[in-house]
């Protein structure tokens, strides 16, 4: 009886952590577009960040929706993870993904003066590396679909070979890659300008809280299943939490320690040249 109560309590804590992390991560999307609107400018924000975010959160929405509502994907997941056949994706994950995708599109749209009338630097253009990753990711998912259709058994319905779950994993990995890449240009922009002016630290603080709680929920869910393959079965959620927290610490260090006194006014677009340049020169 006591063990049943403990399990029920753990499930309750998991659900609570899930919605709190969704709230924290969801709120983290608002400071930057609000900051841009308040300043009527996108100066200080690397356009590579929202560019990656649009692709990443669209992919994340597709991945979560499939794990929640696709009977085919869920059956194939159960086949590959017999000890913990139920995916650790929760409805709060999908709610977060959809909300994030909408806010990312709004933030990206602020780089178009005809829509918002904001000041946008002439050098604020997506880097070649990010554009390459953007279109390369779409190509990779397309290739995965082709492999499932041409090489998978039973048209991709046999989970022992190339299957539709691999397409969903591909979407998940696109999100993970976008998360890793999207922060790098902004770290470089802050370093180049020796300032975090134009980059909202509030979104980073909320993002850190969300990452910690998301990771905690994943550990609790895996413990309840008595099988830690729940972690490897949901590599995207695990990776998102860890990658986000690493970069959050970097941004917090830049804002509060390294560039605490750095003040740059948005009066000279040439000062913001680093917003366009990629982390690694592709020339």
TrEMBL record:
GO terms for molecular function: L-cystine transmembrane transporter activity; symporter activity. The chain crosses the membrane at residues 6-30, 89-108, 129-150, 162-184, 196-220, 240-259. It comes from the Eukaryota. Belongs to the cystinosin family. It is found in: Lysosome membrane. Keywords: Lysosome, Membrane, Repeat, Symport, Transmembrane, Transmembrane helix, Transport. It catalyses: L-cystine(out) + H(+)(out) = L-cystine(in) + H(+)(in). InterPro entries: LC_transporter, PQ-loop_rpt. Its main location: membrane. NCBIfam families: 2A43. Pfam families: PQ-loop. It is a multi-pass membrane protein. GO terms for cellular component: fungal-type vacuole; vacuolar membrane. This is L-cystine transporter-like protein.
């Amino acid at each position: 009886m006591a063990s049943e109560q403990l399990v029920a309590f753990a499930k309750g804590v998991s659900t609570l952590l899930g919605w709190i992390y969704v709230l924290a991560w969801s709120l983290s999307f608002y400071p930057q577009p609000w900051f841009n609107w308040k300043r009527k400018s996108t100066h200080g924000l690397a356009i590579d960040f929202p560019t990656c975010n649009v692709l990443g959160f669209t992919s994340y929405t597709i991945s979560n929706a499939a794990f929640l509502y696709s009977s085919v994907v869920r059956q194939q997941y159960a086949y590959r993870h017999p000890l913990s056949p139920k995916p650790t994706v929760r409805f709060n994950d999908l709610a977060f993904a959809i909300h994030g995708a909408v806010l990312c599109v709004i933030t990206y749209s602020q780089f178009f003066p005809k829509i918002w009338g904001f000041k946008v630097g002439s050098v604020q253009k997506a880097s070649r590396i990010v554009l390459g990753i953007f279109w390369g990711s779409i190509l990779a998912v397309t290739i995965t679909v082709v492999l499932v259709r041409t090489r998978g058994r039973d048209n991709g319905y046999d989970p022992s070979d190339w299957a539709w779950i691999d397409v969903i994993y591909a979407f998940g990995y696109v999100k993970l890659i976008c998360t890793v890449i999207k922060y790098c240009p902004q770290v470089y922009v802050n370093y180049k300008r020796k300032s975090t002016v134009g980059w909202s630290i509030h979104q980073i603080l909320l993002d850190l809280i969300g990452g910690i709680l998301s990771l905690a929920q994943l550990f609790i869910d895996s413990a309840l299943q008595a099988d830690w393959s729940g972690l490897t079965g949901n590599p995207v959620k695990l990776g998102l939490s860890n990658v986000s927290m690493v970069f959050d610490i970097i941004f917090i260090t830049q804002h509060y320690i390294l560039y605490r006194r750095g003040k740059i006014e948005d009066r000279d677009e040439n000062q913001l040249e680093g917003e366009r340049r990629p982390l690694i020169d592709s020339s």
